Amino acid sequence: MPKLYESDEYVGNLRHFTERFLPRFIEMATSDADRGVRVATIALLDDIRERDLLEQEDIEKISIMIFDAESRIRKAVASIFLSDVEALYEQTLESIGGSVEAVENALRNDKETPDGVPYTWLKYNSLVKVLSKYDQLVEETEKENREIDNQKIPLAGFEFGEIESRIRQAATAIVGEMEELQVSFGKCFI
User: Fold this and answer.
1) Is the pLDDT of residue 36 over 90?
2) Which of 83, 3, 11, 81 is closest to 53 using CA atoms?
3) I need a labelling partner for 166 at 20 to 30 A (CA). Which of 8, 10, 25, 173 fits?
4) How far apart, in whole angstroms, are the C-alpha atoms of residue 53 and residue 14?
5) What b-and-e string marks burial along 58-79, b requiring 16 or more CB atoms within 10 Å of the CB?
6) Which range scores top for mean pLDDT: 79-93, 94-108, 118-132, 155-169?
7) Percent of the chain with pLDDT over 70
8) Would you tell me how many other CB atoms lie within 10 Å of the CB of residue 166?
């Protein structure tokens, strides 16, 4: 099925199909027992996203899996997550004034002058904002789950440093996909 979404000639005909089955695709991507099915469905959803057939709330449901415990899932979600970062980055540059290209050209990537603001810093800023948003959503969900279960979720692995932080896990998944991170921080996460 992903090959159907790769061709421009089928996208118009697939719109109704996508609208009908999108909730099921998202359910499969977020909660199927088979990790291989989850990874394949995430790849399908990424193809659907590239054709502008996903709403922002659907992108958020998928992007939050950047904090999934399974590294295969995090890597599969990375491009969808980064599309959310890119959208925020573009909004930021457009709010500064004009098109993305015009603002990037005006700012350049000037780190040498005292008042120079490299546009890549704005991309890092967008990344941090999106990561923080999803981290907060995970925190709220965990808090609700604790309240429902009336007990604290065990965090023994975090207490003894056995489990990486959510942000570090997410960073390892996206560093290979985001050029700015590869240049600046690639050696730290690989």
Assistant:
1) yes
2) 11
3) 25
4) 9
5) bbbbbbbbbbbeeeebbbbbbb
6) 79-93
7) 77
8) 18
| pLDDT tens digits along 50-81 | 988 899 999 999 999 999 989 999 999 999 99
CB 77 within 8 A of CB 42: yes
Torsion-angle region of residue 80: left (phi > 0), alpha (psi -120 to 50) or beta? alpha
Tokens representing 62 are 């998928």
> Residue 190: its pLDDT value, please?
47
3-state secondary structure 37-57: HHHHHHHHHHHHHHCCCCCHH
Q: Which of 44, 105, 113 is nearest to 80 (CA)?
A: 44
Look at residue 2 in the predicted model and tell me its pLDDT.
62
DSSP 89-156: HHHHHHHHHS-HHHHHHHHTT--SSTT---HHHHHHHHHHHHHHHHHHHHHHHHHHHHHHHTSPPP-H
Q: Which residues contact 41 (CB under 8 A, 6 or more apart)?
A: 25, 28, 29, 32
**What distance in Å separates the CA atoms of residue 26 and residue 22, rounded to the nearest whole number?**
6
Q: What number of H helices and E strands is found in the chain?
A: 10, 0
